[in-house]
């Protein structure tokens, strides 16, 4: 995914250096991982609606297939611009959107997303003042967006510093390998490890992902 795909210049998390110092001081695994992948930074791109629409398009298909469908969908809705607006989606009927290669269910999800943004049911302008759970509650009310997608949005788009996505397979696997010598890890054990990372659990999660895949995680 490139910056132009999401229509924005990447913005870095302002708390990153402080978080790294805090985690390295308090956690033996982070003390080892952070210098290994120290040049990377969490970055936010694009706007909220485009980011969430892209997450719906990409569900349960390969990255390559998702890119192809996304490009066709953008061509339908934006006349070649990378900036997607709710009104662009609502102006099309379902058969037109399906022509981009989207399933009937994903068309319903995209239209529901557009309606939530167009009607003001999601309070984008107030998100900076709202806590994480309040934003998750707004997002999961949209069809096709579950808690995991909402948490990824908090981490990668809003750059919230203290999210612990316990439904993420990579996080659980990474905790198992880095803290439990590869032994199976329960949700409670993973939460206990994550609680020690507070108030920078998002940053620690990012480094756990990096320990599994050296390429920077993007969303």
UniProtKB/TrEMBL annotation:
Enumerate the GO terms in the molecular function aspect: alkylated DNA binding; DNA-3-methyladenine glycosylase activity; DNA-7-methylguanine glycosylase activity
Which GO biological-process labels does this protein carry?
base-excision repair, AP site formation; DNA alkylation repair
Highest taxon of source: Bacteria
- Ranges where the HhH-GPD domain occurs: 57-213
Which Gene Ontology CC terms are recorded? Answer: protein-DNA complex
Under the heading SUPFAM superfamilies, the entry gives: DNA-glycosylase (SSF48150)
The alphabetized UniProt keywords are: DNA damage, DNA repair
CDD domains linked: ENDO3c
Protein EC: 3.2.2.21
Matching entries from Gene3D superfamilies are given as: 1.10.1670.40, Hypothetical protein, domain 2
Catalytic activity reported: Hydrolysis of alkylated DNA, releasing 3-methyladenine, 3-methylguanine, 7-methylguanine and 7-methyladenine
Alphabetical list of Pfam families matching this protein? HhH-GPD
The family annotation for this protein states: Belongs to the alkylbase DNA glycosidase AlkA family.
Protein name per UniProt = DNA-3-methyladenine glycosylase II
**Organism, per UniProt?**
Piscinibacter koreensis
